[in-house]
Structure to design on (315 residues):
């Protein structure tokens, strides 16, 4: 007598392929120029973020809660770019589209974990600006180095746990439809479509993670700046308003660089060609890490002064 009927036994057995095939950029003409462009963007990102981290480490005046968050932002951008771009370059430029099953999910974890840390770094910087402008007399007490380090550690733990849960749920699915992923990396949504058993839980998890790591941080940042705008409107002197707002320009630039392309991708996803969608997504992944260091170096007076001082010492 059989303990399980064939249908139930099929549902309990996971089908794991030996490998997946990444095929996102194939068929697009003149892609070799785009790969060179991606490599250039990656090199600039590595140099820029490394420079920001070195400047913060060398200048004792920059070892403040705000620049702990800036350092972590540069670290996450550097790590995320290094997890993504070299692998993409290897897959398409050196024709290695086959990626082992376990490697694909490791690729997915590190790519999404680093990308998801950017909005939480922006949350930490938004909180820093909120307290500095609304409660300037209590800033030294409310925003300390220990508090910022604790907040960054909590964000890393939170993001890593969420992405790890999603990856573990994926590993429990069966993949018997296809092994071809029409993307430039192990894309969560596209790998999800390859599953052939009940994926209600993974689908719910994916939507929940999108809300928690994209829309909730954006809502918090918008709330912070609503409070800052209201507080500044109560200041009588226009000069004081402008001076206070100038301390937020670099952070607002980072928010715009990260969220505007992301929202454009979500809004236009159903209306643009799949190839255009892939290129837009890849640019959304690599452009913020490249631009963030320039924003802080060019718009932050403390880093400008630190660079001048370090160059003067060097000479």
């Amino acid at each position: 007598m059989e303990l399980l009927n064939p249908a139930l036994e099929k549902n309990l057995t996971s089908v794991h392929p030996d490998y997946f095939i990444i095929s996102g950029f194939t068929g697009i003409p003149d892609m070799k120029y785009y790969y060179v462009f991606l490599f250039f963007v990656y090199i600039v990102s590595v140099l820029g973020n490394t420079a920001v981290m070195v400047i913060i480490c060398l200048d004792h005046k920059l070892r403040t809660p705000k620049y702990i968050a800036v350092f972590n932002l540069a670290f996450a951008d550097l790590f995320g770019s290094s997890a993504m771009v070299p692998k993409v370059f290897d897959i398409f430029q050196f024709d290695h589209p086959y990626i082992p099953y376990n490697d694909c999910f490791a690729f997915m974890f590190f790519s999404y974990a680093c990308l998801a840390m950017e909005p939480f770094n922006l949350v930490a910087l938004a909180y820093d600006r909120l307290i500095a402008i609304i409660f300037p007399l209590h800033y030294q007490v409310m925003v300390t180095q220990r508090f910022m380090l604790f907040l960054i550690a909590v964000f890393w733990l939170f993001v890593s746990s969420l992405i790890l849960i999603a990856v573990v749920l994926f590993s429990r699915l069966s993949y018997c439809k296809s092994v071809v992923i029409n993307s430039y990396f192990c894309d969560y949504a596209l790998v999800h479509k390859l599953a052939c058993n009940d994926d209600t839980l993974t689908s719910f998890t994916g939507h929940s993670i999108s809300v928690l790591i994209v829309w909730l941080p954006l809502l918090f940042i918008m709330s912070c700046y609503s409070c800052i705008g209201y507080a500044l409107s109560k200041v009588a002197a226009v000069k004081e308003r402008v001076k206070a707002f100038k301390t937020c320009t670099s952070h607002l630039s980072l928010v715009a660089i990260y969220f505007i392309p992301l929202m454009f991708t979500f809004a236009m996803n159903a209306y643009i060609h799949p190839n255009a969608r892939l290129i837009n997504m890849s640019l959304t992944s690599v452009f913020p890490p490249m631009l963030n260091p320039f924003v802080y170096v060019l718009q932050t007076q403390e880093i400008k002064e630190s660079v001048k001082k370090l160059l003067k010492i060097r000479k």
User: Anything to note?
Assistant: The beta strands are 19-22, 98-100, 180-181. The CA atoms of residues 307 and 313 lie 10 Å apart.
